[in-house]
Amino acid sequence: MTAYARAERLALADDLATLGPDAPTLCTGWTTRDLAAHIVVRERRPDAAIGITVPRFSGRTRTVQDRVAARAYATILADVRKPPVWSIVSNPLLDELVNVSEMFIHHEDVRRAQPGWSPRPLADGLQAALWRRVRTTARFGLRKLAATVTLDAGGHGTVTVGGGGPRVTAAGDPGELTMFFSGRQAYARVELTGDRDMITRLSGAKLGV
What we know:
Blueprint: H1 4-19, H2 32-44, H3 46-49, H4 58-69, H5 73-81, H6 95-111, H7 124-141, E1 148-152, E2 158-161, E3 167-171, H8 174-180, E4 191-194, H9 196-204
Parallel strand pairs: 1-3
Antiparallel strand pairs: 1-2, 3-4
Helix pairs in contact: 1-5, 1-6, 2-4, 2-5, 7-8
């Protein structure tokens, strides 16, 4: 099996190194240093990482992430490049399953925040891996939005998700759909057609985790 998660991880780390610690990202309020620290906390501090998805514990997560971010930038990037084998989210058995989308999204968080960015060509295998995952991501993101959304990934396939309601079609390649349904709608090259009001709501909805 091709290790797309690892390839995206290393490409992300390379871009983080090239841009330095103070470059912008798509994550509101985060520089490249902050994003790198987030990855380290997610993988190496399970006692604090729970706040990434559970707002009740977000204060502790921020505190620990700030401590990690205060370390030497090169040290943080070394941890990004080589996650611990004991991590529940990045051990060798689960890395490809859990981190393909995670590393792709954060790689694009860095790339697309820079002036003059443009989509990069993605290997067919990476596109297929992202397509398998975005179908679940979209279902999760639409759980609070009364809409029926058809994801049209061209030759990769189509799937309809949502709990019913006005119909919208979101068309784009799997990488762009991944960015859209992770909450990066403004930076995803996805074409929306269908109910106009729902298109407006979907474009501004809080999607993803």
